[in-house]
């Protein structure tokens, strides 16, 4: 393992919207962006988009419902580059079922992807974090104002926000911090909730000083 001079961002649950915009925002600051999706092909397509813009990027398929696969992928990034500087946890499961239709196995499956997968990712990344490392989580207004027809989403977002509080407290003594940026609106192609503007807010959230740090930041557009 050799230590790269270039900082490394890992995006879990990447996509052509917010995940790609966050990767691009960090790439503009000199980061190597590693984008993961549920297939190698999809991840490579996202990475190729950034490479076409002149940035350093890689793609990797990942099964976020399988802790062993999450561990494998994140560990491989750390071993390849000798470092992970920012871990961006972006996934959520959308299931349009209200509480009278949602089953316990379905809820737990969604919760595994939208919150639980953060645990193996964090544990695999930890040996490659140094002082100044950051965990960045995409939060949602659904944590406070869930839509009853997609009941599991609110549970995912409330759970992952709560988990970030514990992650931040556990890592703070080592100079590593975690933050959930809660997006209090719906993503849109244009306007204040367009992905590039949210990506700017996420960059600002992870670059705050220790004195300014809080584990939760609200983005109100």
From TrEMBL:
Superkingdom of this protein's organism: Bacteria
Alphabetized CDD domains for the sequence: SDR_c
Pfam families in the record: adh_short
Molecular-function GO term, any one: oxidoreductase activity
InterPro entries per record: NAD(P)-bd_dom_sf (IPR036291), SDR_fam (IPR002347)
Matching SUPFAM superfamilies: NAD(P)-binding Rossmann-fold domains
Keywords, comma-separated and alphabetical: Oxidoreductase
Entry's family note: Belongs to the short-chain dehydrogenases/reductases (SDR) family.
This protein's name: NAD(P)-dependent dehydrogenase (Short-subunit alcohol dehydrogenase family)
Species of provenance: Nocardioides thalensis
């Amino acid at each position: 393992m050799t230590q790269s001079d270039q900082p490394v961002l890992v995006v879990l649950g990447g996509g052509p919207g917010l995940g790609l915009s966050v990767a691009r925002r960090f790439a503009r600051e000199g980061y190597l962006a590693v984008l993961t999706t549920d297939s190698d092909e999809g991840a490579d397509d996202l990475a190729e988009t950034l490479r076409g813009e002149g940035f350093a990027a890689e793609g990797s398929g990942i099964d976020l419902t399988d802790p062993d696969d999450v561990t494998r992928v994140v560990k491989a990034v750390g071993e390849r580059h000798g470092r992970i500087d920012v871990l961006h946890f972006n996934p959520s499961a959308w299931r349009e079922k209200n509480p009278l239709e949602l089953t316990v196995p379905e809820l737990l499956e969604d919760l595994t992807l939208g919150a639980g997968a953060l645990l193996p990712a964090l544990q695999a990344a930890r040996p490659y974090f140094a002082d100044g490392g950051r965990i960045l989580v995409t939060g949602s207004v659904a944590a406070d104002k869930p839509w009853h027809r997609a009941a599991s989403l609110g549970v995912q977002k409330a759970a992952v926000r709560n988990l970030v509080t514990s992650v931040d407290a556990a890592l703070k003594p080592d100079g590593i911090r975690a933050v959930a940026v809660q997006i209090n609106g719906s993503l849109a192609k244009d306007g204040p909730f367009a992905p590039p503007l949210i990506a700017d807010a996420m960059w600002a959230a992870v670059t705050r000083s220790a004195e300014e740090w809080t584990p939760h930041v609200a983005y109100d557009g």
